[in-house]
Amino acid sequence: MRTVFQPIMVFFILLLSNNIQAQEEIKLWGNEEKPFYKPNDLKEYEKQVWGTRCVFNITEPTLTIYKAEGKNSQKAVVIIPGGGYELVAVYHEGHDLAKILANQGITAAVLKYRLPLPASSNKPHMVPLSDARKALKILHEKASLLNIDTDKIGVIGFSAGSHLATVMGLWKSEDTDENPDFSGLIYGVTRMTKENITWLENSLYYRKLTQTEIAQNSLLNLVSAHTPPAFLVHSYDDDVCSVEETTAYATKLKENSVLVEMHLFDKGGHGFGIGRAIDGTDQWITLFVNWLKRNSFN
User: Fold this and answer.
1) For a Cys staple, 155 with which of 9, 54, 73, 180, CB 3.0–4.6 Å?
2) In this predicted structure, what is the pLDDT of residue 18?
3) What's the whole-number average pLDDT of the chain?
4) d(CA 62, CA 274)
């Protein structure tokens, strides 16, 4: 009995060890002062929403890195889950995708970003952006350890996370390590409609937007030849973010000769995450991986 179980136990211990080593969770700001932070009594918690676990009241952001397995493409992506800036759907739009990408040779890092809450910030609208830029910075700093190319580090976002990923590509940081080399934009927001203005005022800025801020958030007007290449996914029956958010952005990218690929599904609704076989939305990840691997982004 002993000679049978010992090798089996060793195997499972090694397997568990490899799974633990495959990902690394780090505090985004470490010992640094968190930008736009103010002391608060908020407590982070998880709750089942839309059929998946989501995280609320995030004030301590983390970045969970899944290192590429097998043949490393030397490409990396920060995953920004959605949640309307009111919660973070960190599992079905974060960790689930990261595991798949890592298995396909792409280093993926899931960002659990701070929510823009007035209780924890005097400038809530700047909080998610500062966290997302820091996440990109960290991947650049760890590039040699992760065997990734510093010219091939991008972002992929879902819904509000897609809005944030779009902003990152259009509001250029003076630190080039904080700017994405490519963007994956999944059922996001790009237009400045009345509905979107109301959303930004209620869930990101917590006040009326100034005319300057309306101009800054008119993202379609900011697209240029220097905008990052983008991979776009949406469904026609999305009743939260209209498919026109994606088609309009794709048109602007093409007008400016920016590399763009777009995939639209007849059914899928909003928030399908890694997708479903029943409506075909599960095809988008294979298409995204293919797009990443056949383009250099240089």
Assistant:
1) 180
2) 44
3) 93
4) 21
CA 135 to centroid of chain Cα atoms: 10
Residue type, 287: L
d(CA 99, CA 197): 35
SS3 69: coil
Bridge pairing between strands 153-158 and 183-186: parallel
What's the CA angle centered on 231, arms 279 and 157, to 5 degrees? 80
3-state secondary structure of 64: strand
Alpha-carbon gap, residue 200 to 255, rounded angstroms: 27
Which candidate, 223, 74, 92, places its Cα nearest to that of 150?
Answer: 74
| Separation in Å, CA 232 to CA 11, 194, 227, 263 | 41, 23, 14, 6
CA 237 to chain CA centroid, nearest Å:
22
Could you give the CA distance from residue 96 to residue 61 in angstroms, rounded to a whole number? 18
Are 170 and 227 within 8 A, CB to CB?
A: yes
Could you tell me where the beta strands, DSSP code E, fall in 170-251?
183-186, 230-235
Tell me if residue 255 falls in helix, strand or coil: helix
What contacts 41, CB < 8 A, 6 or more positions away?
119
Spatial distance between the Cα atoms of 287 and 291, rounded to a whole number of angstroms: 6
Q: How confident is the model at residue 20 (pLDDT cuts 50, 70, 90)?
A: very low
Q: Is 251 helix (H, G, I), strand (E, B) or coil?
A: helix
